[in-house]
């Protein structure tokens, strides 16, 4: 059986399940762009209706971090944008419309309309890029016979788009979006469904993700290993307390074919 080696320890596994955003693709490059377009459109529409938007920005609403020039440079790994579903984010946004004077029904419709606008802009610009080391690691996995899947809080159709834009969809035997299960992260449902599709037991899979929701999902599913990825190990250990290991780069992982 192939082995995933990390920090000198080998784990026999048959599959690796990856979160998508912040794990395979650069989170801010994609979702920072999307969230800014969504929020700007929403506030523009409120102003067109003669309503004053709440004095909140994406840092407060979504859990993003801005640099000195006002551009998004980071995100709260335990915040709404990182861990929430699209429906969660639209609910947060609809609440802002309600606070500004819209009815709850009007605000929900406006939030969904602005989401469609942000999605359309994303389709045009395709702002995606893989994290460093992703493709070489996927190649190692494929060459060793480890099967791969994606388990994401994003919706399946959008996840497929992102994987296609990155040119890596062919590496994955399954892609499970939050719309395919009753309960999203941190519940085990996505891992269980992915492993069912891969015809393996959850205990034979390792999970790699960038939020503690991913780590808790792995633990609740009885996965072999929960690996967190963060810009620095020190920050990751604090933010991902349920991880078995925290890495800052895919270069810290090795795939071995194991004993014959």
Could you walk me through the main structural features you see in this protein, from its secondary elements to its overall organization?
Helix 1 packs across helix 5 (104-125) and helix 4 (86-100) crosses helix 5 (104-125). The N and C termini lie close together (8 Å). The protein has 2 domains: 3-26 and 129-256, Rossmann fold (3-Layer(aba) Sandwich), CATH 3.40.50; 28-125, no CATH class. It has 10 helices and 11 strands. The strands form 3 sheets. The chain has a 6-stranded parallel beta sheet, with helices on both faces. Strands 2-1-11 form a 3-stranded antiparallel beta sheet. The mean pLDDT is 91. By secondary structure, the protein is of the alpha/beta class. Strand 8 (205-209), helix 9 (212-221) and strand 9 (225-229) form a beta-alpha-beta unit. Helices cover 45% and strands 18% of the residues. It comes from Cohnella lupini. This is Phosphoglycolate phosphatase. InterPro entries: HAD-like_hydrolase_sf (IPR050155), HAD-like_sf (IPR036412), HAD-SF_hydro_IA (IPR006439), HAD_sf (IPR023214).
């Amino acid at each position: 059986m192939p082995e995933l080696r990390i920090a000198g320890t080998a784990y026999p596994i048959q599959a690796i399940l990856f979160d998508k955003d912040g794990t395979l693709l650069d989170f801010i490059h994609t979702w920072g762009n999307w969230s800014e377009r969504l929020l700007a459109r929403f506030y523009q529409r409120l102003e067109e209706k003669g309503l004053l938007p709440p004095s909140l920005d994406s840092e407060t609403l979504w859990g993003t971090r801005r640099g000195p020039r006002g551009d998004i440079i980071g995100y709260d790994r335990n915040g709404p944008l990182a861990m929430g579903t699209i429906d969660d984010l639209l609910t947060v946004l609809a609440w802002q419309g309600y606070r500004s004077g819209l009815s709850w029904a009007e605000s929900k419709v406006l939030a969904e309309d602005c989401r469609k606008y942000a999605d359309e802009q994303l389709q045009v610009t395709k702002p995606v890029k893989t994290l460093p080391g992703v493709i070489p690691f996927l190649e190692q996995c494929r060459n060793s016979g480890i099967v791969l899947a994606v388990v994401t809080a994003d919706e399946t159709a959008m996840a497929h788009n992102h994987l296609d834009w990155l040119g890596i969809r062919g590496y994955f035997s399954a892609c499970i979006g939050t719309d395919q299960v009753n309960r999203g992260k941190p519940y085990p449902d996505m891992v269980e469904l992915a492993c069912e599709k891969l015809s393996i037991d959850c205990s034979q899979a390792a999970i790699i993700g960038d939020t503690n929701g991913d780590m808790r999902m792995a633990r609740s599913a009885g996965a072999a290993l929960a690996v967190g990825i963060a810009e620095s190990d020190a920050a990751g250990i604090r933010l991902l307390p349920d991880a078995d290991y925290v890495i800052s780069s895919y270069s810290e992982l090795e795939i071995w074919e194991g004993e014959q």
